[in-house]
Specification:
Number of helices: 6
Largest sheet: none
Number of strands: 0
Distance between the termini: 20 Å
Order of helices and strands: HHHHHH
Structural class: mainly alpha
Oligomer: single chain
């Protein structure tokens, strides 16, 4: 049985958080990242997609910097929120799914 990977909270790299780490904006960014840690892949994508819709146009890059998610992931989440009737073939990956660790593929280990 594989152990679940523990997600670490992303540290925002925006200029506001760097200059004023205790500002209201920095607190909001930390709160967003605290929520993201507890969500699975699909819900993380949808939550950030919802924020992108609420914050308005041209905020995807800003959200990518705050959360550490790629812009394509945020766009996809936004699309899923805006068009819920479109069936998505991709689900949630099982724990441990994805690429095997390098140690497993290498004969040196």
């Amino acid at each position: 049985m594989r152990a679940l990977k523990v997600r670490r909270m992303h540290r925002c790299g925006c200029a506001d958080c760097q200059r004023h780490p205790y500002s209201q904006a920095a607190e909001q960014h930390r709160a967003i990242n605290r929520v993201l840690v507890s969500l699975d892949e699909r819900n993380r994508r949808r939550f950030i997609g919802l924020l992108a819709i609420q914050w308005g146009r041209r905020q995807i890059t800003r959200l990518a910097m705050i959360t550490g998610l790629s812009r394509n992931t945020i766009r996809r989440g936004k699309r899923e929120i805006e068009h819920p009737s479109v069936r998505n073939n991709r689900g949630i990956r099982q724990p441990g799914a994805g690429r095997p660790p390098v140690e497993k593929n290498s004969r040196a280990f």
